[in-house]
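Field reference: sequence -> structure
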Amino acid sequence: MHLEVQSTIHQLLCGEGWRGNRKRVQRVRRQEGLRVRPVGKRKRRPRMSVGYPVQATYPGHIWSWDFIMDRTTDGRPVKMLTMVDEYTRQCLVIYPARSIPSDQVLDTLQYLADLKGAPAYIRSDNGSEFIAHIIQDWCHTADVQTLYIAPGIPYQNGFIESFHSRFRDECLNQEIFFSIAETRIVVEDYRRRYNEERPQSSLGYNAPD
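Structure field:
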């Protein structure tokens, strides 16, 4: 490998008018402390999908979830966990809090599963809350398969991204939040109106419910 590099450098230098040989190239590289960086181990994604991305064909087939951020008037962050049914386009939950650790994510997931029945698949990115062992264990027990999108390609989770765009434009950018309690009331009212009143072109301009 090192000989290949030296030969390549030597050829490039000769093309620029260099008159030295390859040994001189090697000597100069050593004097300047130049070397080929060793190849490191490839990083593994912490948890892989146990199913392949599919298109939802019935209610409860695929739920997609993610986080969206905002702030209260005192500048403190508000983190919101959102979940959408990809078939019905219904927003299942918007849960705001200052922080949402994996155990709270699990509590929200369990609540929705008790209310509506567990989905066949859950689609998400590789956020630490979504790949946590307690989430993986729950999915295994509930026979729910996980669909993790490729890192840095959010459009693979297009349903939740589309919802976030509307939620941002129609609610978060229109409201001023003074507290978490107020935020929960406002976003739950938006979620209800989104499901029951807002027409969507993908549903023939009907509301999700």
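Note: The chain has six helices and five strands.
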